[in-house]
């Protein structure tokens, strides 16, 4: 997979949101019910949603976060032989977690760093490194 970082609002339309969330000083990752790997909270932007609306919705649906601040950081492009898409990366600081809503996710867990077993090992470390560098 090829990936590239761009300044926020480089693209006029976005398909995805990805949120890297902090909770009690650690990174919060979610595990999908049908997988054994860890992922950030995020997904498709639904019709009529802004990227910020989608990021807030996905963060709640996939982690149970009920109180948080969330900030857009940068745009990204990712592509492979099967297709490509553009999205917005967000950083969230969660202050309160409730139960995970019924749906896709089975559990959440905090980590000091990226977990080893990532659902998306081609893109998650790339975006995480960009956040660590303060990109773009």
Can you walk me through this structure?
The chain is an alpha+beta fold. It has one domain: Nucleoside Triphosphate Pyrophosphohydrolase (Alpha-Beta Complex). The chain contains 2 helices and 8 strands, in the order βββββαβββα. Strands 1, 2, 3, 4, 5, 6, 7 and 8 form an 8-stranded mixed beta sheet that branches. The radius of gyration is 14 Å and the shape is globular. The mean pLDDT is 94.
The shape is globular
How many strands appear in the DSSP assignment?
A: 8
**C-alpha termini separation:** 20 Å
> What is the oligomer described by this structure?
single chain
Q: Which fold name fills CATH's third level, the topology?
A: Nucleoside Triphosphate Pyrophosphohydrolase
Can you identify the CATH class? Alpha Beta
Helix/strand order, N-terminal first: EEEEEHEEEH
Assign the CATH architecture.
Alpha-Beta Complex
Mean pLDDT: 94
Largest sheet: 8 strands, mixed
Helix content: 10-25%
| Domain module count | 1
Name the poorly predicted regions: none
How large is the count of helical segments?
Answer: 2
Rg measurement, Å: 14 Å
Put the structure in a nutshell.
The protein has 136 residues and is of the alpha+beta class.
Secondary-structure map:
Layout (H helix, E strand, L loop, with lengths): L1 E5 L9 E8 L2 E7 L5 E2 L1 E4 L6 H13 L1 E16 L2 E15 L7 E7 L12 H10 L3
Parallel strand pairs: 2-7
Antiparallel strand pairs: 1-6, 2-3, 2-5, 3-4, 3-8, 6-7
């Amino acid at each position: 997979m090829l990936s590239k970082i761009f300044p926020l609002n480089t693209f006029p339309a976005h398909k995805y949101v990805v949120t890297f969330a902090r909770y009690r000083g650690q990174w919060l990752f979610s595990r999908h019910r049908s997988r054994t790997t860890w992922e950030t909270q995020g997904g498709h932007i639904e019709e009529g949603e802004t990227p910020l609306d989608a990021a807030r919705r996905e963060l709640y649906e996939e982690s149970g976060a009920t109180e948080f601040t969330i900030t857009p950081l940068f745009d990204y492009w990712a592509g492979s032989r099967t297709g490509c898409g553009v999205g917005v990366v967000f950083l969230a600081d969660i202050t309160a977690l409730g139960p995970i809503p019924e749906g896709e996710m089975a559990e959440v867990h905090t980590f000091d760093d990226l977990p080893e077993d990532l659902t998306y090992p081609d893109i998650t470390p790339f975006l995480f490194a960009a956040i660590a560098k303060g990109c773009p």
